[in-house]
């Protein structure tokens, strides 16, 4: 079993839809949770990070962490065609040289 | 802020030659940088962690003699692919640990696409 599982999709939604992206993990020591967005042939861009459990909101993006279920989510409201990209979750635990463990990434297409 | 550049963005080389890729943090000092490779439709695979002034730490299965990493200054790390072969063709991405925050945030360069013929 991989430490971080993420459905690669692809996920296709109409413009304006609410998008839900998810990752599950097996290592209960993870405390730092991040979402990155990667456009084709570009480096990933940090979108949001959350420490431990709870929600965090930034504009149209909301990140949720449920440590009891080992499940994290990224919600995108009012999705736009410019949101079309691959979304990667990444996690880290104290120590381990603060390396990140990455999900496979979910490919999202928002259709106008 | 927190801009990371990579050079070159795209390189083609012949089998057996060496290629150097540069990673620079443009507006901050990065004591730690990371090198990843990414195959099409796959996630990032960490190759090594590069700390300024010390030897890089390579992930299991990564040949340190083939992928030479040098982090000579607080703003520059280089990856040299020695004696490149077609199977080394990939997308190589560097990142730098953010100068503030939790220590887990990384800022990525735009990547270098290497094609070995």
Which features would summarize this protein structure in a list?
heterodimer, A: 112 residues, mainly beta, six-stranded mixed beta sheet, five-stranded antiparallel beta sheet, B: 117 residues, 11 strands, 52% strand
List strands and helices in order, with pairings:
The complex is a heterodimer of chains A (112) and B (117).
Chain A: E1 4-5, E2 11-14, E3 19-25, E4 30-38, E5 45-51, E6 54-58, E7 61-66, E8 71-76, E9 85-93, E10 101-102, E11 106-111
Parallel strand pairs in A: 2-11
Antiparallel strand pairs in A: 1-3, 3-8, 4-5, 4-9, 6-7, 7-8, 9-10, 9-11
Chain B: E1 4-7, E2 10-13, E3 19-25, E4 32-38, E5 44-51, E6 57-58, E7 67-73, E8 76-81, E9 90-97, E10 106-108, E11 112-116
Parallel strand pairs in B: 2-11
Antiparallel strand pairs in B: 1-3, 3-8, 4-5, 4-9, 5-6, 7-8, 9-10, 9-11
pLDDT < 50 runs, ≥5 residues of chain A:
none
SSE-based structural type of chain A: mainly beta
Mean pLDDT over the residues of chain A: 92
Major β-sheet of chain B, in short?
7 strands, mixed
Strand content of chain B: over 45%
Q: Which sheet architecture does the biggest sheet of chain A show?
A: 6 strands, mixed
Q: Strand-and-helix sequence of chain A, N→C? A: EEEEEEEEEEE
The helix/strand series of chain B, from N terminus to C terminus, equals EEEEEEEEEEE
Q: Number of helical segments of chain A?
A: 0
* Average pLDDT figure of chain B: 92
Q: How many E-type strands of chain A?
A: 11
* Biggest interface found: A-B, 23 and 26 residues
Described by the principal axes of the CA atoms, the overall outline of chain B is: globular
Q: Tell me the distance between the termini of chain B.
A: 37 Å
Query: C-alpha Rg of chain B, in Å?
Result: 13 Å
The number of E-state strands of chain B comes to 11
Return residue spans of chain B where pLDDT drops below 50 for at least 5 consecutive residues: none
Structural class of chain B: mainly beta
Radius of gyration of chain A: 13 Å
Shape of chain A: globular
